[in-house]
Fold this protein.
Amino acid sequence: MLEVKNLMVFYENAIAVNNMSFRAETGKITGIFGSNSAGKSSLQWTLSGIILDMKKKEAMRGGERITVLGEILFEGQNIVDVKPSDRARLGIILCPERRRIFKESTVMENLKIGGYLATKTQAKETLEFVFDMFPKLKDLRKRDGGFLSGGEQQMLAVGRALMAQPKLLLLDEPLLGLSPAMEKRLAESIKEINKRTGITILVTEQYARPLFPVIDYGYIIENGAGVLDGPAAELMDNPDVKEAYFGI
């Protein structure tokens, strides 16, 4: 599904992603874990193509120069220069860090906005699926996004991304700012979404403990570079991973 080769991202002379190579297998959940400022969001912006818009805006205002090198192969096609709207049409959909829902729009309006690439039939079926996955959203469908709790906003952000009909769902720090109970609930939802739809999921996260049980394969990154990878069970048995992410 997705293969990244020797990916490098620079902001002027600062390196954000340092020679990363990894794969996200079709129908699997892949996790990329690292501390704050490890390069996780820069990686997701690059995979989704948002980095190209950032690069253009920075160039127009004379800001920092952004450079992207390497290959991003999606279903065999190198998309490193493909603009984000075209990547979305290919099925690469980002659920961004800090939700970024439309706070002055209702839950239903947010979901309908997310479904702009869907046919009427797809939108109807996906909406039913989203409400089945997150029943609370159905009860709150007329409420403005800004009046939702952090957990409810994250459910909405995931639901909105699903409405866009992803083949590859990119989840950037989906557990950020959530309670332990909501972290567990959302991690279980990610697993259930993958199981029921077969959507390939790539999740980047700092709070790895709730997600290790649901991923199929994981990568650990530091300072923008991969330092360790393996199946979930293998990583959970690694002493360094246990110390860093489980405190044992």
The first strand starts at residue 2 and ends at 11. The chain is about 40% helix and 25% strand. The chain has a mean pLDDT of 93. The radius of gyration is 18 Å.
